[in-house]
Amino acid sequence: MTDPERIKGGVATPVPHDSAVRHVRGEAVYVDDIPEPPGCLHAAFGLSERAHARILELDLSEVREAPGVVAVLTARDLPGANDVSASAHDEPLLAEDEVLFHGQPIFAVIAESHLAARRAARKARIRYQDLPAILTIDQALAAGSLLEPMREMVKGDPEAALAAAPRRLRGRVELGGQEHFYLEGQAALSVPGEGDEMTVHASSQHPTEIQHKVAETLGVPFNAVTVIVRRMGGGFGGKESQGNAPACLTAAAARLLGRPVKMRYDRDDDFLVTGKRHDFRIDYEVGFDDQGRILAVVIDQAARCGWATDLSLPVCDRAMLHADNAYHLPHARIRSWRCRTNTVSNTAFRGFGGPQGMAGIERVMDHVAHALGLDPLEVRRRNFYDPPGGARTLTPYHMTVEDCVIAEIVDELAESCAYARRRAEIAEWNARNQVIKRGLALTPVKFGISFTLTHLNQAAALVHVYTDGSVHLNHGGTEMGQGLFVKVAQVAAEAFQIDLDRVRITATDTGKAANTSATAASSGSDLNGMAVRDACEKIKRRLTAFAAERFQTSADQVRFLPGRVRVGEEEIAFPDLVRMAWEARVPLSATGFYATPRISWDRAAGRGRPFYYFAYGAAATEAAIDALTGQWRIERVDILHDVGRSLNPAIDLGQIEGGFVQGMGWLTMEELVWDEAGRLRTHAPSTYKIPAAGDRPRHMNIRIWERGENREPTIHRSKAVGEPPLMLGISAWLALSDAAASCGPAYPALDAPATPERVLRAIARARGERWP
Amino acid sequence: MRDAIRLLLNGRAVELRGVDPRMTLLDWLRVRRRMTGTKEGCNEGDCGACTVSVTRLENGRPARRALNACIQLLPMLDGCAVTTVEGAAPAGRLHPAQEAIVRLHGSQCGFCTPGFVMSIHAACGPGAPPEADSPPDLLAGNLCRCTGYGPLLEAARQARAAPRPDWEPDDEAMAAMLRGLDDDEDLRLEGGGCVAHAPASLESLCALAAERPGALLVAGATDVGLWLTKRLDEPAELIFMHRVKELRHITEKDDEITIGAGARYVDARPVLARAAADLGELIRRIGSVQVRNAGTIGGNIANGSPIGDMAPALIALGARVELRLGARGRSLPLEDFFIDYGRQDRAPGEVLTAIRLPRPADPARLRCWKISKRFDQDITAVLGAFDIAVEDGVVRHARIAFGGMAATPRRARATEQALLGRPWTEETVEDALPALARDFAPIDDMRASAAYRLRVAGALLRKRLIEDMAPGAPTRLAGTREGAA
Ligand SMILES: Cc1cc2nc3c(=O)[nH]c(=O)nc-3n(C[C@H](O)[C@H](O)[C@H](O)COP(=O)(O)OP(=O)(O)OC[C@H]3O[C@@H](n4cnc5c(N)ncnc54)[C@H](O)[C@@H]3O)c2cc1C
Ligand code: FES
Ligand code: FES
Asked: Across B102-193, where does the E strand assignment appear?
């Protein structure tokens, strides 16, 4: 079993998640599982029941008198700033005189138990004066309610090219939002320390931001606050900024009361209070030739951002940056409206706008193919960016795509999934069957890797080697299930050539790795892997220099072999060398740092090289619909995905499968419904349906693209894998559209999510039937 | 009269006296006992993160059931052996479910994982229901947002095939332990300002209920539980019915089937599936394994929801309900039980004791379809149930009922009339559609629009016809046409 020439758990090995055994035994500790410090109190928010209103009277007397209540806080009671925004300073932790969405926190109850706090929070008597509420994209556009003026990217002369195009069509697609539904809701535990110190245990993708926001809330310097994140029970972007509120609230209460305070949102509150994926409406006009080659497009994206800025601007930017997906658009105008509405403030969600941008252009491809009576895959192929060296490589934001491998991946997948044969079989099936209709779609993904805000592309790490040769590993990345910790530990094990179990993974801690970026933009292992390797290499260089000197040889005669170090002719066990180095007073700790090279982005001009590289993949999905009821099933999916050289194939496969299912859920069954009063009606899993086990396609063939390799010198030439696979789910939506299209001659123009009702409407559209 | 709850927790006997009988098992585990392996993901029975494995005596034999701890109230565990993830395996060992999940990379964030472990754990125990052999059905009540389920489904398959772990007591020993907890004493519990009764016989239940008409009756608490955890109701008095064995009886005669109102879906399903195949398939789609292990048929009816799934199908089959107020019993057709939204023909203190349905001559005659956004564990947008008999091409019998189309589950009487005596053809169905629009004026809500509901109701009638006209043609995406083809 054990190969002396290979360490156990080095890079590229499919080792299990580092916490797997703790997960299955229920021993993995999440915020709410941390043994409560003595005297710990519990917090709950009182929420607005209006979408937009002035608060005329806030009567909290019954709340205060409710059993178990220790304190009730309003905005006036906060010790410092009343702001939990990521950057724009427009997001009060507790509303002051005006509420801006239904579900906005107005006050907080601190009580002896979670249940007592929740009960008391409902006892407020609030008098509101309703103000006009802007709830929809239409209303926002009509009222000019935008977070910032419309933004635009232009390449070439799209209007002239449209006018000259032999064929043209227009369309509109609506894409619903998506609730993260991380299984562990938002949670934070704040424990007051000496003087102005505060320790916060958070379920957050962004401990540094929590540190900053908590410090501002308390009016203390950043160095007074320590934020610790061991793990999250899922994040998906929903814990990038949305964890600020519970952290700040508990810290404020802990400071005021001098006792530890914990808060976890009940699931319904979590739905009501926290932001979601932005819903988009995309209008398109496209000019093309008879072969389906795109000549020009104008794409207008309107996003519902909600009541505050949060991360909406970069989200909408990324939607624009993915409006091309894998296609060369010779002339393009891409515009974006960021609508401010009286609904929950939408936020980061796996893909960060990319999925919406990509779904838009995939709809265009599908529509063009339908208009020409061509196979949509053929149309897609004709428009792919050229491989390196080709002529058609310039994006609408004037970056040259240098690494395009999509044609290769798609060809390989089309072959392995028998696309052509199955298309014919499906056509035959559909001709024979009136009730159950089938559809197939193969769609590509090209996803840009890097934060578009260039300065965020940095990471810090801290590595200690102890004198027994064991390693303590810390970095700014957070673990939310994506397997970052084990991957980075594999990098450290590989660097030192020691077995993985010699590397101790530790909680993210703002006291160890400072000034870090959010674990987001799929960047976790790219950035932190490199930072950790940098730290390891520093220590290795010191060990090498020491060994060379001690054994009277040159540094190039020192090599780290599995579990040992060869120095000239000698071999020394790693722990022995470490101990010798310590005795010789060689420092065995190092910090590491990494900043992504080669990127730049001029946001105002909409030009630059925002991405270090692209990740690619493709999926072919087959669906069946019931043409009588609109119900459907996703039957089969074949996926080929490029992860570069995988750091851990088991983890990567898990990301791909989970990403696909989550993307499929977004576009098919997950429906957020607001009523006319601006109330979210689907605020719990009873009404908001994420894919369940039975929704997983019965046949799922997932492969990592074997030829994948990052052209850029990333960590072991791997590629980011967190977000890109989500967009493979677009194929599920378009497979449903394909099935609907078989019901009649017209284009079904299926909107998302493709609930049975929307599918039935699409069928009616295809048949040219009237729908009341 | 006993005044303490008795249960086994991970093999150790526990007696609970003075605890608030409204406390959920989950809160008790996590808050009181600081056993935090069992997670809370939704607090309403929908995500399965809180799943525990509970062994109880059913017909004298131990049956291991997965239950949602978040909507199990403590008194409901009286007489049960509760296993949580902490007790799934002794120190240093892994249960086959745990071992398989680790080996197959079935956990990512890990928050859902203990729930999956315990769902599979329950399915590896005695008395496993048929779902245990179908991993997607078995795990329908466990949501995972990270994995995409593949490894978890495979883990369920492998764990079910593995030998029973050597540390688990055999069925006989387990039965003996459970019998030791069982008695025929009525229970009276008091704590936290709430009084609860858990009578052991039908006689004392009916007497109690009649005497205390203000007390809230609790069966499986799959509805009641949410009133406590979500609406935060604070009922002052509860009467638990799960200990009344007579209420759980299911009897099959040649011409009639009687289902005790306290029979849980898991126990009633085989009998009802034999009587009408589509009814079995419908029950498979009610909630999840956890919900069906707790919820009762009587609770579904007594709750009176317009989107309760059992009522339309049972109305179509001509079922009657039996009620008892104190010693006085009565019986009425199920469709007459529902008066209006939130109103049923049931006096305060009156107990629903049984549902009686005439055995259908042909188990394939009833057809019913549940329309929802998700196939598994979703609440109905529209449910159509059709009992239509055709002789010589002419409709001779038609009982049609819908859920989700009105304020109560209701018969489509005008539609029935439009079909009766007419040839069973597309034309007749088309002609009947206006009658359907007279029968129902559905509403818009988050599950579907009124327009969709009406359109689909008509489509289901057409589907009913198509299944007769083209017996071999595929018409279903979920379930099979078990005998309906
Ligand atoms: C996650 C989840 C999914 C669900 N999915 C579905 C679904 O798909 N389809 C569906 O129809 N339902 C569904 N339900 C609802 C629920 O499971 C059913 O309505 C269930 O049958 C209720 O039975 P119970 O024993 O749990 O009733 P309880 O919750 O104990 O009681 C419900 C009501 O009925 C009264 N009651 C109960 N028994 C009697 C009796 N014998 N006499 C008089 N009154 C009585 C109670 O007082 C109470 O008012 C779901 C629930 C959950 C939590
Ligand atoms: S916590 Fe979700 S089912 Fe119990
Ligand atoms: S592993 Fe994260 S929810 Fe299942």
From this structure: 187-191
